[in-house]
Amino acid sequence: MATTTLSVEGMACGGCEETVEEAVGALEGTDSVDADNTTDTVEIEGDVDTDSVADAIEDAGYTVV
Asked: I want to staple 37 with a disulfide (CB 3.0 to 4.6 A). Which of 11, 32, 63, 65 is the partner?
């Protein structure tokens, strides 16, 4: 199982973390997602396409850097 970590701008609270986790968690191949607004990161476990993850995060209203 692969682990991918991305930097995300715009998360300010636990609600933001939940929004990102739900958006990425809906992608096929995702085993787990952990968003952290204090470090501005999201860690994804599973076999997912990084571009698809970035698109899902940006569609949810956040910026992948």
From this structure: 11
Summarize pLDDT for 5-49 with one digit per residue, the tens: 999 999 999 999 999 999 999 999 999 999 999 999 999 999 999
The whole-number pLDDT of residue 51 equals: 96
Give me the DSSP letters along 11-47.
--SHHHHHHHHHHHHTSTTEEEEEEETTTTEEEEEES
- Measured in residues, the chain has a length of 65
Q: How many angstroms separate the CA atoms of 55 and 61, rounded?
A: 10
Q: What angle do CA 43, 48, 49 make, to 5 degrees?
A: 105
Phi, psi (5° rounding) for residue 29?
Answer: 95, -5
